Predict the 3D structure of the following.
Amino acid sequence: MDATRAAIYGRMRVAADSIDVMSTSRSASPLAIWAALGSVYVIWGSTYLAIAIAVQTLPPLFSAGLRFCVAGLALLALTAVRRGLHLECRQLVAAATVGLLLIVGGNGFVVLAERTVPSGLTALIVASVPLWIVILRRVAGDRIHLSTLVGVAVGFAGVAFLVFPRGSTGAVDTGGVLLLLVATMSWATGTFLAPRLRMPRSSLLSTGVQQLAGGVVLLVFGAAMGELAHLEPATWSTSSLLAMGYLVVFGSLVGFTAYSWLLQHAPVSLVSTYAYVNPIVAVLLGALILAEPITPSIGIGAAIIVAAVAFIVSREGARQRAARASSEPSAIGTAAD
């Protein structure tokens, strides 16, 4: 979730009206739009690979906490220079709460899980976030169309197909899968609550607070688990350090900026395609760079999940457009990567 897809990176389309990155003009060339969309596809799809490489030698929670602290401070510094840091106490609490759900519960558990679960499989399981959001909306009392519920059931069937044991060659680490399920539920909860809380109007300020709050807590958790007491920089590989730098610069900063710009210049229905393109990118990169196997079961499970997510995202996008056209409030919350 990098889910990290997320950083959070503003992966909530409900933030579209308050985004203050780049120009506010909606005129942009198709080439610029597709270049930005392509960068989001590749960057957010590649963060799973980068995490897998980083945790090979870096302490997982410490490295994740450091990543988000650096990115959060950078975003807050940029906001301070541009507009100043104007934040109500209630907004601070709301942003920090969402940050804990997205960064600590979401990304933190993904980082821990990727020690034993392949990056491509991780991305496919995390892709189920939109399914959990539909469930949360239903629990909250929203009316969900039957076809959407069927899509959710199909998507979860795809997840079950991926993780269900099929002999020694197809076994998946149970502990890692449980961590990923907690991560997806935490990320979905944070995404669901964000539009229902009094968040900062500035997207940069909100994201900076979320990342900094989540990063600090991850560092504390890492220390509690003994990571900081047993740091051995001599054992850190160059590839892990480069992956860490990539996550900070591209995953948390460049990806968020490109996504924010797209929300101002491209249709949301087009931008939201990242939700089902990112897992495909992650699976391909994991196979090409880390030699992660793409078994028939992964191919079938991936097809089921991606199809279900694509159906739900497109249907919810249509629901949003219909709600705006009729001037009725829309309670949709979007998902991450």
About this structure: The first helix runs from residue 30 to 54.
